[in-house]
Specification:
By secondary structure, the protein is of the alpha+beta class. Helix content is 20%, strand content 37%. The protein has a four-stranded antiparallel sheet with strand order 1-3-2-6, with no helix packed on it.
Length: 142
């Protein structure tokens, strides 16, 4: 039997991306999800961003993280994105990230967001809250 909390959340029609799924990267196209979502606007969420090197992780908490808000045109993409994010809805204990509905700061809408389960202790914090700025800064200093 499914968790009632998960059943309640099935109808969310927005998703927030803050890392390699941003429109500036090729990941949406590589996963064949670009045609199944529609960019609404730039957005912000309360939290902290951490670098895993090639991708970020979001931990809910103090600070602001910038990203993009998308309208989900085809809900089947959630399964594709869950696999990409190593999220297993029926086994969250063994998931790298979890997918939750979170109220964004700007715009104030509810959206699916992939978040870290625990705050990383030894990873570099992305101080600007922007993965795109962080990656561009890393490129310019290398």
């Amino acid at each position: 039997m499914q968790n009632p909390e998960k059943l309640k959340n099935i109808d969310c029609s927005f998703i927030f991306f803050y890392g390699t799924l941003l429109s500036n990267f090729e990941t949406q196209k590589n996963l064949n999800v670009a045609e199944k979502i529609e960019l609404v606007q730039q957005a912000e969420i309360e939290g902290e961003l951490f670098s895993f090197g090639e991708w970020p992780g979001l931990f809910l908490g103090n600070g602001r993280v910038s990203g993009e808000l998308y309208k989900i045109k085809d809900p089947s993409i959630l399964g594709v994105l869950d696999k990409f994010e190593n999220y297993f809805p029926e086994d969250e204990d063994n998931s790298e990230y979890i997918r939750k509905i979170i109220r964004l700061l700007n715009p104030e809408v509810d959206a699916w967001v992939y978040i870290l389960k625990t705050k990383p202790l030894y990873l570099e914090k992305v101080k600007t809250g922007s993965w795109l700025e962080f990656k561009n800064l890393k490129k310019s200093t290398n």
